[in-house]
Amino acid sequence: MKICIFGQKLNPEDQIHIKSFLTQMRDHRIEYYIYETFYSLLGNDIRKQIDDRLWSSYEDLENIKPQFVISFGGDGTILSTTGLIRDLGIPVLGINMGRLGFLAGIDKKLINDAVYQLVNGMFSIEDRSMLKLDSNPALFGEAPLALNDFTVLKRDNSSMITIRTFVNGEFLNSYWADGLIVSTPTGSTGYSLSCGGPIVFPDSNNFIITPVAPHNLNVRPVVLPDHYVLSFEIEGRADSFLCTMDSRFEVITSDYQLAVRKCDYSFKLVHLLPSSFLKTIHEKLNWGLDQRN
């Protein structure tokens, strides 16, 4: 078995968890490769054990052909893997080194159990739909993809903007707001939720359109099938605006042509057994718990 390890930052107190994980890799005779940036954050005693098994790009993943990518961090770290994996279809398992963790669901204290379950096939793989941005001029390089959401937002302290939104070329609405979010079901528990959007189950095959601080108060989030194509025209007093795909952003103007559709391929998320979306909701949002006492 081959595994690629990914991470972007590492707290000093978490070095021991990485060391334990690598020990498990060797005990199970798993061939592993570490993301170059993450490798630079490891202590010298850990780096001495790794040799030159490093990776840093889509092309490296294509050559290595790992069975899994293991992400160390929070949900943002998992989102960063989408631009590296793209269409390779490599499943990702998230080890939660942060706080909430809807996607990175495995607590760092359970690393040994996670490796055992992975080796023994005690997991399921879930397909999560992604967004693809078509733009002119082009944005986000080789990976105009998002697992959570696409947004257009005002910049700095400028006044609100107008986002004219079209569904399959037909006019939907003009949103006078600080911005607009187009979310996948996966992203429904992220930025969209904080702006009043609904929670949508991962296999719902939907997009969610959620305005950010809308001026027209009769506007509410809209849920629509993900086989639709959404396009946008943006106006405002400012000369430029922000366009984001998950945690990445670009600066755009009103001259940009933007359209969002469902990506042709999915993101594969590993769940250790037993696991379910309802279980995650109960654990992360404390649903079903009486906290009055």
Task: Explain the overall architecture.
This protein has 293 residues and is α+β, with helices and mostly antiparallel strands. It folds into two domains: 2-129 and 266-285, Probable inorganic polyphosphate/atp-NAD kinase, domain 1 (Rossmann fold, 3-Layer(aba) Sandwich), CATH 3.40.50.10330; 132-262, Probable inorganic polyphosphate/atp-NAD kinase, domain 2 (Tumour Suppressor Smad4). It is built from eight helices and 20 strands. The protein has helices at 15-27, 36-39, 44-47, 58-64, 75-85, 111-119, 191-194, 277-285, and strands at residues 2-7, 31-35, 54-55, 68-73, 92-96, 106-107, 123-128, 131-136, 145-146, 149-153, 161-167, 170-177, 179-183, 206-212, 222-225, 230-235, 241-245, 248-252, 257-262, 267-272. Strand 17 and strand 18 form a beta hairpin. It is globular, with a radius of gyration of 20 Å. The N and C termini lie far apart (49 Å). The model has no long low-confidence stretch (mean pLDDT 91).
What is the strand and helix layout of this fold?
Layout: E1 2-7, H1 15-27, E2 31-35, H2 36-39, H3 44-47, E3 54-55, H4 58-64, E4 68-73, H5 75-85, E5 92-96, E6 106-107, H6 111-119, E7 123-128, E8 131-136, E9 145-146, E10 149-153, E11 161-167, E12 170-177, E13 179-183, H7 191-194, E14 206-212, E15 222-225, E16 230-235, E17 241-245, E18 248-252, E19 257-262, E20 267-272, H8 277-285
Parallel strand pairs: 1-2, 1-4, 2-3, 4-5, 5-6
Antiparallel strand pairs: 7-20, 8-9, 8-19, 10-13, 10-17, 11-12, 11-16, 13-14, 14-15, 16-19, 17-18
